[in-house]
Amino acid sequence: MKISNKMEPKIKTTLSLFLLSVITLSSLAQNPIIRDQFTADPTARVFNGKVYLYPSHDILAPPGKNLRKDWFCMADYHVFSSENLTDWTDHGVIVSQNTVTWVDSTSYSMWAPDCIEKNGKYYFYFPANKNTAGPNGRKGFGIGVAVADKPEGPYIPQPEPIKGIFGIDPNVLIDKDGQAYIYYSMGNIFVAKLKENMLELDSEPKAIPDLPSKGLKEGPWVVERNGMYYLTFPHVENKIERLEYAMGNSPVGPFKMTGVIMDESPINCWTSHQSFIEFKGQWYLFYHQNAYSPKFDKNRSSCIDSLFFNSDGTIRKVTPTWRGVGISAATGKIEIDRYSRIDEKGVSIAFLDSVKPFDGWKATFSSPGVWATYNSVDFGRKKLKTAEVKCRSEKGGTLQIRTNGMEGVVITEVNIPAGKEWNSVASRLIKSPKGVHNLTVMLKEGGMVEVDWLRFKVR
Ligand code: FUB
């Protein structure tokens, strides 16, 4: 891509920003899925056989900007992609409050976005505070569109927000007949038709009736499956948001309230926000919580768990997990603190360093016999020879690593020397499994042992 001097200054800045910011950092698997920055309101889309993630980008309010310290603060959007839901590439900033002409660049209000493809173009919809009042005299939230030729950009923002919308959390559905609909929230959830150009409304926005009348509703996400339309949204039924849905026979309803997709956050994140995709024959729910910021729930992180439909088309409630989805390579770092099952009385999870949450977590095995299981580890077909465990134990201890839970085959036993420092301890394998197995780590004997990660090596 060439930056030419003849380009509009805003477009030029947007392109330069995009080109400068393309990063190909790979994150690890498990929940949260992005492990070096906050990513809220995760919109997932499948484009060209890959999964693209368009989250909003929570940050702490920068000092000296006259911003509330206790509120959402978002200046830009990144896009991420993955071929396996396990390894994620950050393609960098695609839209920033400083490069959209109509956005108040002091507002840090780039909330939940969406992105959709039509005729080979990618339309990125985003809410933000306007810098001028509209014809109705209102500033507040508008919804803008930025357009690209590729899912990862570069995106060129339109000079004006979509006329006729005052709201947040855009979501766009293109129905089977090609008609596009935009959904958004502002107290109610609204729907309107979009014109063929995807940039203008083709009908008056209408509030969708028959949804809960008490408690905040926001974040609509509509998906069609087998001729049924699912209107999903976060709603405060009790004290904080949970994910609910209504079903209907058309993109504009009527929708009938049907159930709860995910209960309120077990770690008390006030907001929730969702999107669904079907990828390689499995449905997945993307959502967020505040695992990396337990004391401030406006710094959130994206997660994925599998989602299943019942035979009547209703959705089975999803329980959030730390393990998340996808298969982990035995030769990569397996974070046992992102367990699929755990001996809750004997294994505890904590940050490695509470002032550096993105360093991740450790699992502490308190006494002999306690265990944690991590599912779906791929040992491949090659013989593996060594296990390496990053661990620490003041008194020393022996960890047993085996396949398939309590009945499994012992792969190795790792003798951890007594000491105060973190060490990488290696141990020869007794058995090298082949293919995909669940892995169990058990403290066989000794004192308390802390584990950061483990992996297997061919040498
Ligand atoms: O991220 C800011 C707001 O919080 C979103 O727009 C809402 O859906 C909620 O997640």
Describe, in short, the structure shown:
Helix content is 3%, strand content 43%. It is an all-beta fold and 459 residues long. The chain folds into two domains: 31-307, 5 Propeller (Tachylectin-2, Chain A), CATH 2.115.10; 330-457, Sandwich (Jelly Rolls).
What does this structure look like?
This protein is mostly beta strands and 459 residues long. The protein has two domains: 31-307, Glycosyl hydrolase domain, family 43 (Tachylectin-2, Chain A, 5 Propeller); 330-457, Galactose-binding domain-like (Jelly Rolls). Helices cover 3% and strands 43% of the residues. The protein is built from one helix and 31 strands. The protein has one helix at 9-21; strands at 26-27, 40-47, 50-56, 76-82, 88-96, 114-118, 121-129, 141-148, 156-157, 168-174, 180-186, 188-194, 206-207, 221-225, 228-235, 242-248, 255-262, 274-279, 282-289, 301-307, 328-329, 341-342, 347-351, 361-365, 371-378, 386-392, 397-403, 410-416, 423-428, 436-446, 449-457. The strands form seven sheets. Strands 21, 22, 25, 27, 28 and 30 form a six-stranded mixed β-sheet that branches. Strands 1-5-4-3-2 form a five-stranded antiparallel β-sheet, covered by helices on one side. It has a five-stranded antiparallel β-sheet with strand order 23-24-31-26-29, with no helix packed on it. A hairpin with a 6-residue loop joins strand 27 (397-403) and strand 28. The two termini are 44 Å apart. Mean pLDDT is 93; it is low at 1-28. Beta-L-arabinofuranose binds at residues 40-41, 56, 72, 111-112, 168-169, 218-219, 271, 273. Beta-L-arabinofuranose (FUB) binds next to strand 2 and strand 10.
